[in-house]
Amino acid sequence: MDHKVTVVGAGHVGATAAQRIAEAELADVVMVDIAADLATGKALDMMESAPVLGFNAKITGGGDYDPTAGSDVCVITAGLARRPGMSRDDLLKKNAEITAGVVRELVERSPETILVLVTNPLDAMCEVARRVSDFPRERVFGMAGVLDSARMRWFIADELGVSVEDVDAFVLGGHGDTMVPLPRFATVNGVPLPDLMAADTIEAINERTRKGGAEIVNYYKEGSAYYAPSAAVVQMVASVLRDKKKILPCAAYLQGEYGLDGLFVGVPVKLGRAGIEEIVVLELGEAEQAELERSAEAVRELIEALPA
Taking the domain 145-305, which CATH number applies? Predict the structure, then answer.
């Protein structure tokens, strides 16, 4: 393969993302986990599926960071997962420590890499990665909006009984209960969502989207979602490695856009080979802007609570 992707964390999200990246032949994949044998075993298991599925990308796994050297993209999923009753905020300090350690190992070996954060609380972990790596904002961003928007798109498609391929939607803001679904920008094959669905149904979908992660956690009892998060990761990695320049909602470091500064907040960005190539600024209504600012304030509170 022409590219190498490192996935740190061989849990459900990381392993599923690694598998999907390899199956799509986007890159060779190095999977790293503190549980080295787990990463090694999962990588071997995946490679034994290659003759059946017909992919030629190579997946390796273990606990050593040296094989990650020269990675084009590093996806960080390592950290504690949420459990029922646990908020993303509860994870803050422990996962900040884990993320900082991982980033140091990665950037030492791949100083030109692009960091894609998945670990929660997502927006705060992006800030940890930015501080530790000292990378420009183009090369540090988080997977949040792609997942949240995918959930919203599925809820809309299911409610209307239409193909998911016809549904577009954006969710902005922090990755948590204050996220900002934007039904005004949602369309079904170009038709605005408010023309197809009653306002109370739209609001119910907005609320379900905000609580989409918690809904899965409550069903699983232990652990959190991984099929949809890993799919979102793969879409982002593909846009970078194949220079697709797709417009995707990601946690990006804002420097005045949307009236916000010095925070990672979910907004639409153009993703290409350089990482974030453009931050797309939507014209928000007064109420939408107020919601985004409330969401940003929740992110700011997390950032202020980070260990120095």
Answer: 3.90.110.10
Residue among 12, 42, 130, 175 flagged as catalytic: 175
Domain with CATH 3.40.50.720 in the chain: 4-142
Question: At 285, is the secondary structure helix, strand, or coil?
Answer: coil
Within a 10 A sphere around the Cβ of 134, how many other Cβ atoms?
A: 9
Question: Is 164 within 8 Å of 157 (Cβ atoms)?
Answer: yes
Token readout for 95 is: 């996962």
Nearest of 222, 215, 217, 230 to residue 12 by alpha carbon: 230
pLDDT 10s digits, 36-50: 999 999 999 999 999
DSSP state of 246: E
Q: Which CATH number is correct for 4-142, 3.20.20.70, 3.40.50.720, 3.30.360.10, 3.40.50.1820?
A: 3.40.50.720
The pLDDT tens digits for 158-212 are 999 999 999 999 999 998 889 999 999 999 999 999 999 999 999 999 999 999 9
175 in active site: yes
State the angle between helix axes of 122-133 and 92-109 in degrees (0 to 180), rounded to the nearest 10: 40
pLDDT along the chain (308 residues), means of 10: 96 97 98 98 98 98 98 96 65 90 98 96 95 98 96 98 97 91 97 97 97 92 91 98 98 98 97 98 97 95 86
pLDDT of residue 221: 86
Locate CATH 3.90.110.10 in the chain: 145-305
- Beta-ladder partners of 247: 270
Contacts of 284 (CB under 8 A, 6+ apart): 182, 258, 292
